[in-house]
């Protein structure tokens, strides 16, 4: 009789342990800030249920070319700044499997910003102006800024500005001036910023272009 009671107690304890299994949940409540044009790899984690776990996008493909591996690695390269909604699901190895999901709001920052500071203007036979560059990432940039005037009739590009610098994280609105004398003609101004990031073996690019050609009427 005593042995029967002991066996029953063991069975009851086992049932209580099984019924008290922790529910399957995703541990992360949020994602780190992402940067446009930069690769990232963010591991996600789950707890509870019956490991191992299998991860997938909750509603078809993830936006912006991002993917998640079955092991829970969220990765990709966001193409532009803004906010993304990422629906992520995870399932455990129970039979039948338990599944849970979470919708993350990911903030994608502009890792490299290029803006007009003084829009290009014609003064006699010159075109002058300036741009400003900002580093919104956590990495040093080996930055090159090139400004050219492209002749509308020949497509010939003439350099009217150049700057090479190291742009550190948090450096914002760093000015780069440009200007040069040009022959008579019609010119579209292109400003290009190229940031090389040795630590990530990555390159970021930004371009500005005048919406209309500028007319140089003075000069030879």
Structure write-up:
The chain has 220 residues and is mainly beta. The protein folds into 2 domains: 87 residues, Immunoglobulin-like; 105 residues, Immunoglobulin-like (Sandwich), CATH 2.60.40.3880. Helix content is 8%, strand content 53%. The protein is built from 1 helix and 17 strands. The strands form 5 sheets. Strands 12, 13, 15, 16 and 17 form a 5-stranded antiparallel beta sheet that branches. Strands 2-9-8-5 form a 4-stranded mixed beta sheet, with no helix packed on it. The chain has a 3-stranded antiparallel beta sheet with strand order 3-7-6, with no helix packed on it. The protein is elongated and about 85 Å long. The chain starts with a helix and ends with a strand. About 7% of the residues have low confidence.
């Amino acid at each position: 009789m005593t042995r029967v009671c002991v066996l029953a107690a063991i069975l009851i304890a086992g049932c209580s342990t099984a019924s008290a299994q922790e529910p399957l949940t995703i541990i992360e409540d949020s994602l780190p800030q992402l940067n446009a044009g930069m690769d990232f790899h963010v591991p996600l984690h789950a707890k509870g249920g019956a490991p191992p776990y299998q991860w997938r996008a909750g509603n078809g493909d993830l936006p912006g070319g991002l993917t998640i591996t079955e092991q829970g690695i969220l990765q990709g390269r966001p193409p532009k700044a803004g906010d993304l909604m990422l629906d992520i699901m995870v399932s455990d190895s129970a039979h039948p499997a338990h599944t849970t999901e979470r919708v993350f709001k990911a903030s994608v920052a502009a890792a490299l910003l290029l803006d007009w500071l003084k829009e290009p203007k014609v003064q006699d036979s010159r075109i002058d102006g300036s741009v400003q560059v900002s580093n919104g990432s956590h990495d040093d940039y080996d930055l090159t800024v090139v400004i050219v005037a492209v002749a509308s009739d020949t497509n010939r590009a003439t350099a009217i500005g150049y700057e090479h610098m190291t742009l550190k994280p948090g450096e914002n609105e760093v000015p780069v001036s440009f200007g040069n004398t040009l022959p008579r003609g019609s010119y579209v101004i292109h400003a290009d910023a190229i940031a090389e990031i040795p630590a990530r073996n990555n390159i970021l690019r930004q371009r500005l272009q005048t919406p209309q050609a500028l007319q140089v009427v003075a000069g030879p």
